[in-house]
Specification:
Low-confidence stretches: none
Largest sheet: none
CATH superfamily of one domain: F1F0 ATP synthase subunit C
CATH class of one domain: Mainly Alpha
Mean pLDDT: 78
CATH topology of one domain: F1FO ATP Synthase
Number of strands: 0
Helix content: over 70%
Structural class: mainly alpha
Strand content: under 5%
Distance between the termini: 39 Å
Radius of gyration: 19 Å
């Protein structure tokens, strides 16, 4: 299971690394090319999708691991349940922040 998680993380890093040069085009270069509005719109749409997707994937992985550990700790010491659920809420906050940033990017389109 750990190997599969490492492969997914490596694939996401490779995807981001390969997309970075494509998004490095400056506004003046895009204006010279003539399609500045379409390039900007496409870049913002891709950025919003990546922001939402990666934040939800990361949050899901975190909630899965933290939730399992929280339930294990609660099984042994029930008084730790509230404290451990706070950590799960922090991990879910990552997805909410990613959603907020994606909405801000979509509003710029």
């Amino acid at each position: 299971m750990k190997r599969q998680g490492k492969k997914i993380q490596l694939a996401l890093v490779g995807l981001l690394a390969s997309a970075a040069p494509a998004m490095a085009q400056t506004a003046t270069e895009a204006a010279v090319a003539g399609g500045s509005d379409s390039v900007r719109t496409l870049g913002l749409a891709i950025a919003a999708g990546l922001t939402m997707g990666l934040s939800v994937i990361g949050s899901g992985m975190a909630v899965g691991r933290i939730g399992a550990a929280a339930m294990g700790a609660a099984a042994e010491k029930p008084e730790l349940l509230t404290r451990s659920l706070l950590f799960v809420a922090l991990a879910e906050g990552l997805a909410v922040l990613g959603f907020a940033i994606a909405i801000m990017l979509v509003q710029k389109i």
